[in-house]
Write the C-alpha cells for this entry.
Amino acid sequence: MLVAFVLLIVALLAKDATPLGDRFVLRALSEGTALAVGGGWLALSGGRIFNRWHMVLGLYFAALVLAIPQAMSPLFVSLQILALAAILLFALAFLDAAKLDARQPLFVARTMLIALTVVCLVSLLLRVWHPALTFEQTFEGPRFRGLFSKPAMMGAASGLLFGLCLFVPWHWSIRAVGIVASLPCLFLTGSRTFWVAAMVSMGVVGFRYVRWRRTFVPIVAALIVAVLCLGIVVGTQVTSEQREKIFRQDSIENLSGRTSMWAQALQRYWEHPWLGYGFTAGGVVLDESSGRGPGGVSPNSPSQGAITLHNGYVQSLLDSGGIGAALYVAVILSALLCFLRYDGAKQYAAEFYCLLFLAIANLGETVIFGAAVLHGVWFWYVTVLALTLPSLAPQISLPERAGPIGREATPEVEAERVSAPGTPEPRRFPLVQSREAWL
C-alpha cells in the first residue's frame, strides 16, 4: 500500500508539474491503480475501517451521483466522480493497512515533503535560468507559477510544503531546505489567499500541537510584527508602481474580478438549486453561448473541469447544489472536528495543518476541487484520515484521553500507552520531538 501511495504522488506530481506524456493518461493510470488496489483491499478486509463519521462523506458522494442525470455532460461528470471514488477507497484501504504498521502515514507525509521540495527548488532554479517559463501573464501582470501550469497550483504546493516542513518529524536539515524552498515560491506567486492561509494555519496548529505554546505564540507574534515593520521600511524605499506589483493593490476592491464572477454564479445557481450542474462542471455554465462554455470550451470537452470560480464553496453550489454544498462544508468541518477530538496523542499536526490550510485557501481559490491534481488528492486523503481517527485511536477510557484543547495525559497513562505493543511514539512538533525515535 505504501508503494502504491508513493507511485500515486509521483504520477500526479509528474502530471501537474512536467510535460511528460498526456496528463489524462497519467491520471487514468495512477487513479485506476488506486481504484483497483483500494477496492480490492477493502473487499478482502470486510470494510472494518468504516465508522459513523464516514456517513457524512457517503452522503456527499451520494449527492454527487444523484446530480449526474441533469449534468451538461453526464459522461464527464461520471468520470470525475469515479476518480474521486478511487481516491476515497484507496485512502480508506491505506489507513486500514496502516493498522499493521502505524508509521506508514508518517512515511507518506515525508514523501510528500520531499516531492514538493524538489518541485519548489527546480522552480526557483528555472526562474533564474529561464524566467519566461516560470511566469504566467495575467491582466494584473506576470504571476509566478514555477513548474506548474497556474500560479494557484504553485501557491498550494508551496503552502503545503511550508506546513509539512514545520510539523513533520524529521531531521532538521531536510525540513530547513524545504522551508527555504517554499517561502520564496509562496511569496513570488503574489497570492494573498495562500499567504493568509499559511500564516493562520501555522498559528492555529502551533497553538494546538506545540508543547512550548507559551513560547511559540510570542515567537509567532514577534515574527508577524517583524514582517510588518520590514514591510513598512521596504514600503518607504520602493515606488508606488513596485508596491502595486507586489501587493496588487488595485485588485483588492473587487478581489481580482472574483466578486462579479461569484454574483453571476449565484444567479445561475437558482436554475438548479438542489443538486447543481454536475461535479466539477459548474464553472462551464457561467458563459454559455451556442452550446459552448467560457473561452470556447465545449461542454463535452475534458477541459471544462479546468474552469473554476476561485472559491471552492461557491463552486460547490454550482457543482452539487444546495444539498451537495451543505454536505461539502459538513465534510470539512467534520474532519477538522475529528482532528481536535480524536488526536489526543498529537500525532497528526502536519495533516491538520494541510486540512486547515486548504480549507482557508478554498475561500479565494478553488483548491478543494475534485481529484484531478495532487493538492486536491492530498486534501481527500487527510480528510479520510481525520474521519478514520476514531477507528485508529487507542481505546482508552475517557478520563485518561487528552482533551480536544490539547491537555496532556498523565505520566502514568503516557508511559502505559507508549509501552503498549504496536502503539507508535507520539509525533510531536519537531522542535521538541527526538528524531531518533523515527529513524
